[in-house]
Please model this.
Amino acid sequence: MTSRDVLFTLLGLVAGASAVLAVTTRQVVHSALWLVTALGALAGCYLVLGAEVVALVQVLVYVGAVVVLVLFALMLTRAPIGRSDEVNAGWVQRLAAAVCAVAVTGLLGTALLLAAGGRAVVVAPERGAAQPLARSLFGAWALPFELLSLLLLAALVSALVLSRDDREH
Model:
């Protein structure tokens, strides 16, 4: 076991634990901050695998844009920040969600074991280089990339419209 394996395992554990905390915490802002931690740890996993460009895109797009958009939407729509009894799920719904989570985890784990088996993953640094990624993003994926940016802009404008008070008219 190399130091890369240990670092990858630690980052994976941090990402998994913070993702669970992001889903289970009752504070919306705390959930967004745990999401930042999970996405940052995932970017660290990409760095360990030698995909520096993918890690940079992970930080810029997800941590820098999506989480900030979520926080702005929370602030602009005046959503309740603290605990709210209206949106808390009962124990039956929590149990059903936990059972579904364990089932999906088992399904994904089984699929990965069947697909990869006992083979070792060989890290190919050239696959995470900027040139093939840029060709892919700005070639065939340019239109979906621009449509996604328009969708995020529409969400931000919608949050601004929803946050306006009706008495301001």
Notes: The domain at 3-168 is CATH 1.20.120.1200 (Four Helix Bundle (Hemerythrin (Met), subunit A)).
